[in-house]
């Protein structure tokens, strides 16, 4: 069952293809070899590894990719449940607009999608922030170095910041599309009632 609104169909295309492509291809390109290019002063392999593990306790390929992949799956669940329900009941696009109960159920699934996106947005801000700084100050006191604070250069910090902002932008766009979809379905339902 396709979404009953044009905005819903666009949301599915935008959400599924563009966001997944951006995450899969560009996310790996930006974060793929971060540990190799992370360097500290003094530039010793063991200090670089020690400070990198402090900088990123969980590798970005795992933390970033898993978080956003999980977000994509969780946000798709309400729509998938509705479409499974619609397929079992043989509900088509017009039935969703004609029968109030189906309209309400569909709107509730979109509202749940919005709620999940807002929660994910909040989590993104608290987990990743908005800015990747070019310099990281590593506390190497426990490593046994004579200098307790070591300066480390974060590779491609600008690209990582752009990537984070793009992921926030995708979240905002999908929320706006979901809100617009609710207005579209209410408007189409209102037009359907006037025609009768």
UniProtKB/TrEMBL annotation:
GO BP terms: cell-cell signaling
Annotated compartments: Cell membrane
Keywords (A to Z) from UniProt: Cell membrane, Membrane, Transmembrane, Transmembrane helix
Lipid bilayer topology: Multi-pass membrane protein
Entry annotated with the keyword Transmembrane: yes
The organism's place on the tree of life at top rank: Eukaryota
Family matches, as SMART domains: Connexin_CCC (SM01089)
Any one GO MF annotation of this record: gap junction channel activity
Ranges where the Connexin cysteine-rich domain occurs: 116-185
Any one cellular-component term (Gene Ontology): connexin complex
UniProt-recorded name of the protein: CXE1 protein
UniProt source species: Crocuta crocuta
Gene encoding the protein: Gje1
């Amino acid at each position: 069952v396709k979404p009953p609104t044009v905005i819903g169909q666009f949301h599915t295309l935008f959400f599924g293809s563009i966001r997944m492509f951006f995450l899969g291809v560009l996310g790996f390109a930006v974060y793929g070899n971060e540990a190799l290019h992370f360097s500290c002063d003094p530039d010793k392999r063991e200090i670089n590894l020690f400070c990198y593990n402090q900088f990123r306790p969980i590798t970005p390929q795992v933390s970033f990719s898993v978080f956003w992949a999980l977000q994509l799956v969780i946000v798709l669940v309400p729509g998938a449940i509705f479409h499974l329900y619609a397929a079992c009941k043989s509900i088509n696009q017009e039935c969703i607009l004609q029968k109030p109960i189906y309209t309400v159920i569909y709107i509730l699934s979109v509202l749940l999608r919005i709620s999940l996106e807002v929660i994910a947005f909040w989590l993104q801000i608290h987990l990743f922030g908005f800015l990747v700084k070019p310099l990281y100050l590593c506390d190497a006191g426990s490593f046994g170095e004579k200098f307790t604070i070591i300066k480390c250069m974060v590779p491609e910090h600008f690209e990582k910041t752009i990537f984070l902002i793009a992921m926030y932008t995708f979240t905002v766009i999908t929320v706006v599309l979901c809100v617009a979809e609710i207005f579209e379905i209410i408007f189409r339902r209102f037009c359907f009632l006037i025609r009768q």
